[in-house]
Amino acid sequence: MYSEIDSNKRKTYLLISIFIAVIAGIGWFLDYYMDAGYGILVLALILSVLMSLTSFYQSDKIALWSTGAKEIKKEDNPYAYRMVENLCITAGLPMPKVHIINSKALNAFATGRDPEHASIALTTGIIERLENEELEGVIAHELSHIKNYDIRLMTVVVVLVGVIALIGDLFFRMRLHGGGRSDNRSGGNGIIILIGIIFILLSPIVAEIIKLAISRKREYMADASGALLTRYPEGLARALEKISQSPDELKTANSATAHLFISNPLKKKNFSKLFSTHPPVEDRILKLREM
Asked: Number of structural domains, the chain?
């Protein structure tokens, strides 16, 4: 379990390093092409940060509202509430707000910018249809997302994706209005310009793939951290089996919130693993049982 956590931490750092390298490459090319210093890069960074700050402080409320999650107190559902409470004591975490989604679907998610401002949401279906150890595994997985600051990390990643998208948009707008160096240049410079333009065209796609890859690595890490918390990987493995076999779709979920859930709530097959918000369930179950 420790080796799995360490492996996913390393891979996350590597992916973020690639992200930063992509932005640095775009900045160098724009400096060369526009003769404008790093003004475009700085402007895109400021705009992305301002947009993301709003998302950072309000995204949890939006996610809970959009999925129809209702906050409960201990007396509303003592079984689920006490299970969250007990696991928080074990993990050394402050108690998050507990929410229930009235749905037969088997799913759960955690949200919030840090452990002091966190919420966990469980569907009525997952509470009713999972065994005690299985539900513990699911809750431990979600608490691990909170403890590992995954929401904060993904906010940083969204900022980086936004920077790349804004830089690309600004570049083509300036190019449209005749910005940039003169087109009368040597063949060598022309090749650099061509490579740079292709790079900027492909960067938003690459950024989205890296973002999804980081999201998948954090799912593996939450699986391992959750198993470490309960000391019973089989509980979460069995829960994932039941969740994946359930035909019920969470109707209040959408593509904007799908990545938050323990399993893709839309129950749709992705065209490519590269664009999947979650790792394959079979692979997650295998890794858990190898622990």
From this structure: 1
Residue 97 lies in a domain: yes
For residue 111, give the CATH number of its domain.
3.30.2010.10
Check whether 177 is labelled as a binding-site residue: no
**Using one digit for the tens of pLDDT, what is the confidence trace for 111-160?**
888 889 999 999 999 999 999 999 999 999 999 999 988 877 776 676 67
71 three-class SS: strand
**Domain housing 139:** 66-149+217-288
Residue 241 marked as a ligand binder: no
User: Which residues are part of the catalytic machinery?
Assistant: 142
pTM assigned to the model: 0.78
Residue 141 marked ligand-binding: yes
Mean pLDDT of 230-244: 96
